[in-house]
Amino acid sequence: MIQNVVISVSEIIICFYLLIHRILPYTLPTKRYRILFFLLITLATLSSLGNAFFVYLYSHFITNNTFSFYKSCTVGLNNFYLSIHFALAYWFATNFVQNVREQSKAELQKSILEKSILEAELSSLKNQINPHFFYNSLNFLYAQALPVSRRLSDSVMLLSEMMRYIIKENDAEGKVPLEQEVKYIQNYFAIQQMQFGENLQLEIDIIGNINYRRIHPLTLSPFIENAIKNGDLSSAEQPIKVLIETQENDLFLTIIYLRKKGIEESEVYDDLIEIRRKLYIVYFNNHVVKFEHSENIHKIFLKLSL
């Protein structure tokens, strides 16, 4: 009895090894199914005859027990069936795990590449602009506009502050103080207010402490620019509402606006999906973005882990 178990276990191990390291890698990835079928039939035959051969040797020379060729062949086939079940389960499990790892690695490499491209584009843009020339030019325009129009000179000053924020150097992590991002948004709103006057219906609230927190530059502004672009700016009943809130290490941005007439819903979401894609490159899984709409009312929710 023990000798039969030893022979069966040895046979299962040998078949399992041949299937995992020789037959399956040679046939399945290249879809050589005919060759696979032939090799399986061959291995099943060898397993059956091999089991019969070793049982015969053991029975004839050691124990002198009655030898049954049919029974020995059947045991050999059963050993083959067990080994092929183990081998297939092992093969598909390991390939599944490997595919998941390769996919995760590819996505990570893609994210790193996209982030590098964006950083290169931003760096290229900054290199194309000479900050000193730009600031000196804006200061000159401000001085020239001041005697002519206070409104015009204020606009130039706001634009100067916005451009200074855009092209300034960031820290080692590529971040800036959160209050500077909020100041940029406020300047953006101020310029829009000068352009549209009383036609711009806008409410902005800031809750929590925005000091001593850092954020990647121009993270919040694309969502707000999307609302200005696609929202109805003149609706007093439904003004554009912007809420920026901080809680511990989290930042929340909520935007509610009425979609402008003539703007298709698909246009709004195409812009938001592109914004979310770029945000994913920078913040990866440290953010949550949700879009909701009811009739023509659109809501944007953003949560960032600072």
From TrEMBL:
Give GO terms: molecular function aspect only: kinase activity
| All copies of domain Signal transduction histidine kinase internal region, residue ranges | 120-200
Keyword Glycoprotein in annotation: no
Provide the transmembrane region boundaries. 6-24, 36-59, 79-97
**From the record, what ranges are coiled-coil?**
101-128
Annotated InterPro entries: Bact_2-comp_sensor_kinase, Sig_transdc_His_kin_internal
Keyword terms, alphabetized: Coiled coil, Kinase, Membrane, Transferase, Transmembrane, Transmembrane helix
Protein name, please? Histidine kinase
